[in-house]
TrEMBL record:
Record-linked HAMAP family: TrmFO
EC number in record: 2.1.1.74
Protein name: Methylenetetrahydrofolate--tRNA-(uracil-5-)-methyltransferase TrmFO
Organism name: Oceanomicrobium pacificus
One of the protein's GO biological processes: tRNA methylation
Keywords: Cytoplasm, FAD, Flavoprotein, Methyltransferase, NAD, NADP, Transferase, tRNA processing
UniProt xrefs under InterPro entries: FAD/NAD-bd_sf, MnmG-rel, MnmG_N, TrmFO
Named cofactor requirement(s): FAD
One Pfam family of this chain: GIDA
Record: residues binding FAD: G11, G12, G13, M14, A15, G16
PANTHER family for the chain: GLUCOSE INHIBITED DIVISION PROTEIN A, METHYLENETETRAHYDROFOLATE--TRNA-(URACIL-5-)-METHYLTRANSFERASE TRMFO
Cell location: Cytoplasm
Annotated MnmG N-terminal domain residues: 7-378
């Protein structure tokens, strides 16, 4: 048997790790390039592969009524590494899938390093890869190095688009005042008692909420550099102070909504707003403040967040932060095999390709890894049908979206072609979503079998 040349994968995050796993399992050698710890980033804390930076949640795991839950199902069906390790290191989170971030990253790293066809090389790939690398996946994520981003922009003739991604703070559980806070998942979601009590809840009355909003708006914020001033935020990860500036009630209808929760300390008192904290590790010693991404300066964060009832004496394992996130104008630049049209030896996967979210990024890595490996083996692998979650995402970022207004996108049923014979409207939503997921599972299974 003739020797198979390796695929080079640049970036060891969610997408790069999944791509390496998929390609290696198809019998193709992989050289995985990760710049950490040689070159560090603002957001990363370790040199582990697939480190979770912004949150520890993979979001809903409902594969019959939720698009991201369906994406989970498809990745599991495709023997996805990210989902396998996510399931292994899952934490109670109601109807969501949250993971112990350190154990998860360590397991992904050890699994890839133990694979006989995967080689990990530490160090930055500065600029475009050399021409002799004829099969490359660029999975550098939202923190692509400046040298590589500039080289890609020069090759494509496109100015890269960018938005800011914000990180939520993490609190030590034993510093939360449990005489004010309580454990409960919204609407008591979850099949076990542990899942139904996966969140810590901190209630606010009207006066406390109004004072909190005032402090939030007045707090010292991170100042952006001149070239960052006109960079838009991604609406799915807005800093809380940006949401508050859009209207004083915005947070009450977002991350601080009080519905579906009953305070056992005062069961007859309806909270005006509620702050939720989600378990962040298997030991239950760390909790992240849900939806509280922020660009406040560190000192201001401590002052403002300690205004939350139950968090008056909170100690923080990590404060929030904000970083610039770079991505391609993929509808204009990529084909449906995720290849750069001006340089087809380069495939792009993960957030740099124009998807948003851990699972979506890993899913694009899964496809890129399979497509690159198939090409190395002399075959062409088309993307899954647009009726599937993965196919809907690929269709959107490689032509379904308007290139003039393109922004990163989470998977959602709005990206799927309608199901014939299923009526629209809110009353028929459950029926419609079930029709989407049933069709997707059948079509994805057929795609896997090809």
């Amino acid at each position: 048997m003739s020797k198979i040349d390796p695929i080079h994968i640049i970036g060891g995050g969610m997408a790069g790790s999944e791509a390496a796993w998929q390609a290696a399992n198809m019998g193709v050698p992989v050289i995985l390039h990760e710049m950490r710890p040689t070159v560090k980033t603002f957001a990363h804390q370790t040199d582990g592969l697939a480190e979770l930076v912004c949150s520890n949640s993979f979001r809903s795991d409902d594969d019959s009524q939720n698009a991201v839950g369906l994406l989970h199902w498809e990745m599991r069906a495709a023997d996805g590494l990210i989902m396998a390790k996510g399931d292994k290191h899952a934490l109670p989170a109601g109807g969501a899938l949250a993971v112990d971030r350190d154990a998860f990253s360590q397991d992904v790293t050890e699994t890839l390093l133990s694979h006989p066809l995967v080689t990990l090389e530490r160090g930055e790939v500065a600029g475009l890869p050399p021409e002799e690398w004829d099969n490359v996946i660029v999975a550098t994520g939202p923190l692509t190095s400046t040298a590589l981003a500039e080289a890609v922009a020069a090759r494509t003739g496109e100015g890269s688009l960018a938005f800011f991604d914000a990180i939520a703070p993490i609190v030590y559980a034993d510093s939360v005042d449990m005489s004010k806070a309580w454990f409960q998942s919204r609407y008591d979601k979850g099949e076990t008692e542990e899942e139904r009590k996966a969140y810590l809840n901190c209630p606010m009355d009207r006066d406390q909420y109004e004072a909190f909003i005032d402090a939030l708006l007045a707090a010292d914020k991170t100042e952006f550099k001149d070239w960052e001033e006109n960079t838009p935020y991604f609406d799915g990860c807005l800093p809380i102070e940006v949401m508050a500036a859009r209207g004083r009630e915005t947070l009450r209808f977002g991350p601080m909504k009080p519905v579906g929760l009953t305070n056992p300390h005062a069961p007859d008192v309806k909270a005006h707003a509620i702050v939720q904290l989600r378990r962040d590790n298997a030991l239950g010693t760390l909790f992240n403040i849900v939806g509280f991404q922020t660009k406040m300066k560190y000192g201001a964060q401590k002052e403002v967040f300690r205004m939350i009832p139950g968090l008056e004496d909170a100690e923080f394992a990590r404060l929030g932060g904000i970083h610039r996130n770079t991505f391609l104008n993929s509808p204009r630049l990529l084909d449906d095999r995720l290849r750069l049209q001006s340089d087809p030896r380069l495939r792009f996967a993960g957030q740099i390709s124009g998807v948003e979210g851990y699972v979506e990024s890993a899913a694009m890595g899964l496809l890129a890894g399979r497509m690159a490996a198939a090409a190395r083996l002399g075959r062409d692998l088309p993307p899954p049908p647009p009726t599937t979650a993965m196919g809907a995402l690929v269709t959107h970022i490689t032509g379904g979206a308007d290139a003039k207004t393109f922004q990163p996108m989470n998977v959602n049923f709005g990206l799927f072609p309608p199901v014939e014979g299923v009526r629209g409207g809110r009353r028929k939503r459950a029926e419609r979503y079930k029709a989407y997921t049933d069709r997707a599972k059948a079509d994805f299974g057929a795609w896997l079998a090809t």
